[in-house]
Every structure is written in structure tokens, then in C-alpha cells.
Hints:
The complex is a heterotrimer of chains A (232), B (231) and C (228). Chain A is an alpha/beta fold and 232 residues long.
Amino acid sequence: MIQVKKLVKRFGLKTILRGLDFSVAQGEFVALLGPNGAGKTTFLRILASLSRPSLGEVRIAGHRLPHDAAQVRAKLGVVSHMPLLYPDLTAEENLQFYARMYGIDGMDARITEVLDLVGLERRRKDLVRAFSRGMQQRLAIGRAVIHNPEVMLFDEPYTGLDQDASEMLDEVLRSVAAKGRTVVMTSHDLVRAEELATRFDILSRGVITASAARADLKQTNLLSFYKQSLES
Amino acid sequence: MQPRPIGLKILDVVTIIVLAISAYLALFFAPTEKVMGEVQRVFYFHIGTAWVGLLGFVIAAIAGIAYLVSKNMLWDRFEVAAVEVSTVFFFITIVLGSIWARPAWNTWWTWDPRLTTAAITELIYIAYFMLRQGIEEPEKRARFGAVYTLLGGISAPITFMVIRLFRTIHPVVIGSANGTQEKMSMSGDMKIAFFFALFAFTVIFVDMIWHRLRLSALEEKVESLKLNASM
Amino acid sequence: MNKSTPSLWKATFAIVRKDLAAEFRSFELVSAMLVFSLLVIIIFNFALELDIKVREAANAGILWTTFAFAGTLGLNRSMSVEKDRGCMDGLLLAPVDRSAIYFGKALSNLAFMFIVEAIVIPMYSMLYNVNLFRIDLLVVILLGSIGYAAVGTLLAAMSVQTRMREVLLPILLFPVAIPVLLAAVKCSSGLLAGDPFSDILTPFNLLLVYDIIFIAIAFMTFDFVVEE
């Protein structure tokens, strides 16, 4: 579903990604782990078509980036640590806006469906301004799946959430990921990553240094795998 | 530190020579203007600096477009060099114009179209530097800079046309003057000094752009050395 | 559920609709612009000691200065809303042409300017006993605002991405918007002085030319301002 070959991203003289290779099969849930400044967000922004690669090849669902950005965008749902919602609009109006931007027919039915999914049906007519951080983040997920994307990208979705809100988000993320969707999530929260992901990739100094499937991690735990990968 | 390339060394010497000749022509060779007297002699350098000032802004706008099309950082350096050098020359133009205006129009400044446009153009390029200053990322800086030089390069002539709707007292040097404006008439020797000043300042302009481009390259080298040292 | 990439106009109007809906809920932007406009008019009144003779010559200038200042306020705010919560990324993630984002934001900004103008103009007419409700004058105000919002939207998208943010917008915008403001002032003062339309044809044409050129440039360069 996602193929990345020899991806390089430079900002001026600084090289953030140094020939990164990465691929994800359909239905996989990959957690992208790594220390701050390793290039996780930069990488995800490139996958999201928000940033252009300096060199290398990026293909999502068969389309090349940045060339076929429009086709990729239609198949992509992105949740970042910012909610990307308008505080002066209600939950419904926010979703209506994004539904229009994705050209969705039968908007109302879809919005009801999505609000159900993220457990906010009762808050449909409430202003996003009044929402807690956790509710905003759940609505943000609703926004990201409004067009039923095949590929989802989560960039540190747990930032600023307390324990309860995180657990609720777990459920929503799991149900979103369940429908055969391909997911890439960056996180430095190993506990959350371990709960959700089917594969763990370590990104360090601009390249993927290690990768392990959930099954391979049975004996060792994720933390020691993470530490080993960073040391080597 | 790399030594200056030989071409640049030669150009430096040529620059000094043509500037000296141009100064001689303007100050001694050209006859004293009948009406204005000696102060008219600033006119040669005034025109010289104004010419390269405008040339630089046009070049900057073209370099901006070239950058947006090619995304080659070389064009960005070229654009910065052109704007920087031109901003200084244009400032000199305005100062020289004021020196001339004091005895001629009995005021340092007047809200004439050329003067006002010159002042606004100068402000556009000061804004340009402030814009660049506020952006860390080199590519973004280059993109925004290119878009802004383009906007500035197009709005400046429109500004001039609009302000001209209010009347002007600035002498017309080249082209026809309408009835209310004075037309400067030049004798043969004046023309020599005039055209040589245009030539001299073009040479100076090229020389300075070259130096500025070299400076940018060196700056970049220092940056990358720093970056490698910190790794 | 069916989906198809929305057309340029559908996406543009979705953005305008969203901006207006948010604004009609809070009235934050328009009320700030309005109060600011009134303050500018009051300050001018005392700063210029507006007796009847001076005022007649100065009306057009005061009006446009007011619109320009209030305009920057609105432009800044409307772009900060997108930037602060990452909503700009939300817009960029949608499978729509970037020009839809530009036109959407420019039209919303224009709408905010119109709302403010629609209140300031009658108020000004009342305060200074001058009739501003003339179709030709309104056309000039329309054209002037279009040019100002066209460049302003592009430059606001740039300035919110810099370190100085809001402070930078007027510095960037005023020098390049001078032609549209001056042409608008020239037209307006001509009309208010009772000159026939043929007398203001030159500034009027310049106003039109500016609008067309700058909409075209902003449309072509907006991509470079939002892409990364």
C-alpha cells in the first residue's frame, strides 16, 4: 500500500531523512517509533502530501507523490496532534465542511455514521470550542475518516490526553483501523503503540534502523527492542 | 578562504577605473549647466545609480520567477544580491536627488510621482528583507522572497502611473516632456558624461552582484561547516 | 456513500460558507474591524480638525485609510484561524486544487470587508452629512476592496508563516497595495466632488487593471506560499 524508496528530505543544509526505505502492506498497522528529532513528523508529512520529498520515490495506493497528490489525498486520512477543527463551528458543521471538501454525497447519513463511530452523536450540535481535548481528538478522527480513506496516518495522536481520554481514543483508533485500513502511526508512547500496532519500526537519524512484527516480539518486550535498536 | 577568482580581481580594478573616469567626467569635463549651476553635476551619478537600482529590481523579479520555476537556489542568491545592491543604489539616488532638489525646487523633498514611487519602492524592498528575516527554512525563504519581489516588481510601475495622475515637477530626461514640465537639454559633452555614468554604474553593479553572490556561497559554506561540526 | 473530487467552485464555496458560519456565530472578526474603523474615523476627525472645507477634500482619503486598516485586521485574523489549530493542513489535505483555498479565503476576506463597509458607509454619511450612497461610488469601493483582498489574502498567508506573524502583514501589504488604494481614493474623491465619470476614467481603469493583474498573480503564486 505504501512504498518508499531512498527518501531524502532536506531543509536547507540540514538533512532530516537520509535515504529512508519503508513499505507497508495493506491492512498493516505500523507504529513508527523514535526519539525526538529523528524525522518522524517530517516523514509523515511527506506521506500526507503536505511536504515534498527532496529525493527518492514515494508511492501510496499506486500513486506517486508529489505528482499525483490529488489522487493520494482522496485516499488518505490524517490525524495529527492538532485537531484541525474550527472551534466556532459545531461538531456537525465541522464534519459538513470536510465532507464538502471531499465531495461526499449523502453527507448527513455519513456524518451520523461517523459521529456514532467516535461516540459523539449526542454532542452533534455542540460547539467544538466547548469540547475537552479528548473529545476534540475523537472528532478529529471522525474528520479524518469522513471520506472512508484506505490509508490513515496518525501523528502523535495521544499528545495532551489524560489516561481516560487515551483509553477512549484507543478504542476509536482500533475500530478505525479494523476495516482493513492501512495505518502508520508515530508515537513516543510505547505502551499505546504496543496495544495497537501489528508492526514496529524504529526511525533514527533519518532512516529506519529496525523493524519487528508483533509476533516476533513475544519473547522480548517492545521497550528492550526499542532500546537495542537505538543503541546499535 | 578561497582567493577571489581572477575575473573578479580584474573587474574590481576596472570598476575603480571607470568610477574614477565617470567622476572626472561629471565633475570637471561636463560643462556647467546654465540654469542650475554646479549642483547639476550630481545629476550624472543620480541617473547612474537610479538606472542600476531599477535594473536590479527588474533582475530580482526575473530571478524570482526563475527560482519558482526551477527551484534552483542559485536564483535565490541572485535575487537577494540584486535586491540588496539595488536597495543601496536606490537610496543613493534618492539622497543625490534631494541634494539637487534643494537648490532646484527649493525643498529637499516633494511628493512628486518619481520621488514618491522611489520611496515606496525602497519600502517594498525593506519589507522584503524583513520578510526573509522572519523565515528560518531556506527554501521557504526563497519561495516567499520570490513571490514578494514579483508583487513588488509589478506594483511599482502601477504606483508610478497612479501617482502621475497628480501633477509632477520632475524633469524628464529621456522622452518627451509635456508643456508644464521642464525638459533638460544636454550638450554633447554632457551626453558623454551622462552615458559614461550609465556605463560606469552598470560595471559597478555587476562587480557588486558578483561579490554578493560569492559572499552567499561562503555563508553557505560556513553554515554547512558549523552543521558538520555540531553533528 | 459516493465521493468524487469536488469542483473548484464547490470547494471554494465550502470554505466561504465555513468562514461565514463561524463568523456569524462569534462576530469576533467583524466586530473588531468595526470598532477599529470607528476609532480611526474619530481619530481622523480630531487629528485633521475636520471643518467642512477640509472634510470635503479628505472624505475619500479617510474612508480608504479606514478600510485599509480594518482590512489588515480582518486578513490577519482570518488567516490565523487557519494557522493556529493546524486547519491550514486540513485544507491542504483535501483533494482540491490549491486555488480553491486561495479563492475561498479571498472571498471570505472580501465578504468581511463588505460587511464592515456596509456599516461604516451609512455611519460615515450620517456623521459627516455626506451622501456616500451612489452606485458609481459603490462600484469603486467594490473594485478597490477586491484588489486589496486579493493581494492581502496572499500576503497574509505568507506573513502568518513567519516569525513576526501579524506584525508583518501591514508592512508587506501597504507598499504593494498603494496603487489600488490611491487609485480608489482618486476615483472616490473625484466622484464626491461631483466630477463627471469621464474625468475619473484613468484612475478607474488603473483600478481595474490592478485587480486583474493581482488576482492573476496571487492565483498563480498561492501554491508556492502554502506548499512545503
